[in-house]
Amino acid sequence: QITPVEFPDVTADSVYIHWEPYQDVMYVYDREKPMLMYSQEADIHGSLALRPGGMEGNGVMNFSEAQLTSNLIKFKEKLFDADTSEFKLKSDELSEFSFSTDNVNAHVDFIKKQGIFKSNTGGSLVKFPVNQYICFVNEFTWDMEGGSIAMSSEKQETLIEGGEQVVLKGSKFISTHSEQDSLYFFAAKANYDLKNKIISAEQVKFIHVADARVYPDKEEVVVRKKAKMDPLQNARILANIVTKYHNIYNASVTIDGKKHYNASGQYDYVDELRRKQTIYFNTITVDTTIQTIASGEIKDTANFMLSPNFAFSGTANLAASNQFLNFDGFCKISHKCDKIISHWFQISTDVNPNEIYIPITEFTSNLTNDTLSSGIIMDNNSISVYSTFLSPKLHKPDKPFLSAEGFLYYDKSSQEYRISNKDKLIEISLPGNYVSLKTSDCIIYSEGKITLDENIGQVEMTAAGNIFHYLKKDSVVFDLIMELDFFFTDPALKAMANSLWDDTLAPLNFDRTIYERALSEIVGKEAADKLVAEVNLLGSFKKIPDELDKSIVLTDLEMKWDNESNSFISQGPIGIGNIQNRQVNKYVKGYVELLKKKGGDELTLYLEANQDHWYFFTYSRGLMQAISSNEDFNNPIKVLKPAKRKSKVQEKGEMPYQFIISSDRKKKTFLSKFTGE
Q1: Is the dihedral of CA 332, 337, 338, 340 positive or negative?
Q2: What is the pLDDT confidence band of residue 452, given thresholds at 50, 70 and 90?
Q3: With the CA atoms of 299, 300, 306 and 310 taken in that order, what torsion angle do they form, in degrees rounded to the nearest 10?
Q4: In angstroms, rounded to a whole number, what is the distance separating the alpha carbons of residues 480 and 634?
């Protein structure tokens, strides 16, 4: 009946009845069969208590594939309530429930075909055994006819992820699958499809997987049987949660567990001009250190640019803990200098778009596996000079005067590609070989240690300084400190040093930048700084360092390549730093020529204090000839026995060496090349 007090219908067969007339209550206990209720839509295993004020009961109720257990159930004509209950929904599978929870306040209405359940603790544990998930919910509504459960939760939970405090709202869904390492996510709302056993979660802000956060499109997540989550389409990945370096979007993500996922998606590479270029990562996964990694192919047809000055094709690689992408493939520089062909060259390096340094080694090669060179080269076949910049040498045996390795960098202010060690690229005054290509004027510039004596024989020639190769007019100019060390008689060299020191000659300019840099290459940066400080203060070094204690050291020597004579010829005054351990530090007139020959190079020096005071040296194929206007120089050579003018051969096959007095005619013949007389 409905009025004045509501009572449901009950059909009970073979029950035990206990009547308490003074309490006006009748207790009914089932014995063999459950008691049928609500037009047989439900039954109860347990007991009922019938009073004038209504009916109550306790036990296990079964209705519409559900099971509710409570110690106190209040029945009305077409509904019932239980303040504290355990609720389960049966599954298609035998002896298995697809949904269960406990400690909930239950309200079941057989007219509306609806059950409303509220947690008594602010979040009751709900189990999805078929889905292998659990969650904590505040409230859920069961649609008996539709076969679904709508869940919601207003609860908030504060987590610490990657050192960051995160507040998440909703129910916490946790996988109980043994291989998913307690994967979880929070959802403010969710729906459970009882027929298909599908959890459809809504308002899922993100899922923490491995070191990343995965943001579902429309904040929706679907979980099927055995904890299988539907792939997330159009998702976003933040990797990692600590550094937050990388964002991948339009991603298709398959989450396998708390520590692993697979995906593909798009990534924006932003260059120094803030221009975006899209990289498609076809492989996104997790490595053995639980780090997100990704890779994607960039074809040469994509016209991808690391910056306006570096093109790239190959593979882009991402590691979440690394701020920058790794590019493994081929790079190409951009310039319009006809004499330097721009090649695609191999690279494998992390790239900071705002400050690109690309490693260059002696093994750097192009698409056809040719080793590339950067420097100014001597072609011994044609006796000519040419330059390379990330391009192959004309012939493998060709030797560079100077080449550079380390890192390739583009300097925007000077419009130059530069190669050197990173310290020198940052601070040019530091030691190290350096080569640059100035794209606006097509000039190859290099500085550092310079090798001129590949084919000179028994004269040890050490040089440092710079070289300019003006490609448009094919002009090559050297500015050097040159050390010449050879077997000679000490009295002659001493007489030469003393006489030049006594002459009224212009003192050396020690403030030249290239002098300081070249000195650093020979003695080291720290020693060079000390020597420069000494010479600026005292006018000379306190002591000649061992590295400069050579037969003759020329400090200011500008030489230019002459295509007609196949030689390097000096231009302008020549600076003499020291002769052996005796300092001169004066400028003289004169000429230095290094004649390049296939059979052996020829070196000639003419140094003139004035017309009546000069020195002449010429060396070729083991024979050093010298003569001077100073008899104190000539006599020690003349009086020395021939055997004393020869040096012993140190190694088998080494060219023999001796020095002799030269002739005035030979000197005049040499000078006629320059004077025309």
Answers
A1: negative
A2: confident
A3: 160
A4: 28
Rounded Cα distance, 365 and 362, in Å:
9
DSSP symbols for 279-324: EEEEEEEE-TTS-EEEEEEE-GGG--EEETTEEEEEEEEEETTSSS
Q: Does residue 164 have a pLDDT over 90?
A: no
**Tens of pLDDT, residues 376-388:** 999 988 899 999 9
Average of per-residue pLDDT values in the chain: 93
What is the per-residue burial (b if ≥16 Cβ within 10 Å, else e) of 438-476?
A: bbeebbbbbbbbbebbeebbbbebbbbbbbbbebeeeeb
CB 404, CB 435: distance < 8 Å = yes
Percent of the chain with pLDDT over 70: 98
The conformation of residue 511, written as its DSSP 8-state character, comes to T
Look up residue 547 and give its DSSP letter: G
Q: Identify residue 200 by its one-letter amino acid code.
A: S
Whole-angstrom distance, CA of residue 541 vs CA of residue 239: 59
Categorize the per-residue pLDDT at 235 as very low, low, confident or very high, splitting at 50, 70 and 90: very high
pLDDT band of 294, cuts 50, 70, 90? very high
Of 284, 311, 280, give the one whose Cα is nearest residue 297: 280
Among 260, 270, 269, 238, smallest CA distance to 251 is for 238
- Under DSSP, the state recorded for 4 is S
- What whole-number distance in Å separates Cα of residue 439 and Cα of residue 659? 47
The pLDDT-based confidence of 91 (bands split at 50, 70, 90) is low
Here the tokens at position 656 are 């023999």
CA distance 402 to 648: 31
* Predicted local confidence at residue 100, as pLDDT: 83
The pLDDT of residue 157 is: 84
- pLDDT of 127 reads 87
Report residue 364's pLDDT band, with 50, 70 and 90 as the boundaries: very high
Alpha carbon distances (Å) from 331 to 60, 192, 340, 355, 421: 74, 53, 16, 16, 19
Beta strands 567-580 and 550-562, pairing class? antiparallel
Question: Tell me, what DSSP letter sits at residue 542?
Answer: S
What are the tokens at 165?
């405090």
pLDDT band at 94 (very low <50, low <70, confident <90, very high): very low
Identify the bridge partners of residue 472 per DSSP, sorted by sequence position: none
Q: Is the pLDDT of residue 95 over 90?
A: no
Q: Which residues contact 54 (CB under 8 A, 6 or more apart)?
A: 5, 6, 7, 74, 75, 76
Bridge partners (DSSP) of residue 232 are: 253
Residue that the structure tokens 């509501």 belong to: 6
Q: Which amino acid is present at 138?
A: N
Q: What is the mean pLDDT of residues 338-363?
A: 95
The Cα 438–Cα 215 span in angstroms is 47
Q: Is residue 348 predicted with pLDDT exceeding 90?
A: yes
457: left (phi over 0), alpha (psi -120 to 50) or beta: left
**Cα→Cα distances 172→106, 161, 515, 568, Å:** 21, 15, 72, 81
DSSP character string of 639-658: HS-GGGGEE---STTPPPEE
Sequence-distant (≥ 6) Cβ neighbours of residue 59 within 8 angstroms: 30, 44, 45, 46, 47, 69, 70, 73
Cα dihedral across residues 619, 498, 503, 508: positive or negative: positive
Other C-beta atoms within 10 Å of 573: how many? 16
The single-letter code of the amino acid at 470 is Y
| Residue 623: its H or E element | strand 623-628
Q: Which tokens go with 267?
A: 């990534």
pLDDT at res. 136:
86
H/E stretch holding 467: strand 460-470
Diameter of the chain by CA atoms?
Answer: 153
